[in-house]
Design goal:
The chain has 177 residues and is mainly beta. The chain has 2 domains: 26-71, no CATH class; 99-176, RNA polymerase II/Efflux pump adaptor protein, barrel-sandwich hybrid domain (OB fold (Dihydrolipoamide Acetyltransferase, E2P), Beta Barrel), CATH 2.40.50. The chain is built from 1 helix and 12 strands, in the order ββαββββββββββ. The protein has one helix at residues 41-53; strands spanning 26-27, 30-31, 58-63, 66-71, 99-103, 108-111, 127-128, 133-139, 142-147, 152-157, 164-165, 170-176. A 4-stranded antiparallel sheet has the order 5-12-10-7, with no helix packed on it. The protein is rod-shaped.
């Protein structure tokens, strides 16, 4: 978290006969301040703790000539409704003998062909060999060709074209042989 304090352009002078004002006390509910009085260290700590418990990322406070901003580091905590699970074309038992799964080596967007009008690199029923391109995963505007690592027959394409994939997600089921 970071805090900053705005410096006042003019220095306020108090008359010598003025009595010092006692520091205000912090209540369990938070800082208790009269308008225009600067916050003490304990009040600032209380505000920081309060902001730390809330879902927003940034908090700005201004009282008199004092102004500060508290900003949380790290990813924003955004509350969203759960998204629908990615659609799998078909479920295959992992225990099926001789079945190999080609997984995604990176996070990105899965494409079955080099462009929307081109034929897919492979389809179910095609025989593939090691080093043959199976699909493309786009990551940060780079097109990464994903190659097969075994020889065999493509049994299923497990991801729908144009959907996001994660590292280690199964892309193809290949029957070794």
């Amino acid at each position: 978290m970071s805090t900053s304090r705005k410096k006042s352009a003019a220095v306020k002078k108090t008359p010598a006969s003025a009595k010092p004002v006692p520091a205000p006390k912090t209540t369990p509910k938070g800082p208790a301040k009269a308008s225009g009085q600067p916050l003490g260290l304990e009040e600032i700590k209380t505000l920081i703790a309060l902001v730390g418990r809330e879902p927003f990322q940034e908090f700005e406070f201004e009282a008199g000539d004092m102004r500060f901003r508290i900003r949380k580091d790290g990813p924003a905590q955004v509350y969203q409704a759960p998204l629908a699970a990615p659609v799998m074309l078909a479920a295959l038992p992992a225990e099926e003998a001789g079945l190999h799964f080609v997984t995604s080596p990176i996070v990105g967007t899965f494409y079955r062909s080099s462009n929307p009008t081109a034929a897919p690199y492979v389809s179910p029923g095609d025989f593939v060999k090691p080093g043959q391109t199976l699909c493309i995963i786009e990551a940060m505007k780079l097109m990464n060709e994903i190659e097969c690592d075994v020889a065999g027959e493509v049994v299923k394409v497990l991801v729908e074209n144009g959907t996001p994939v994660e590292y280690g997600e199964r892309l193809f089921a290949v029957r070794i042989g």
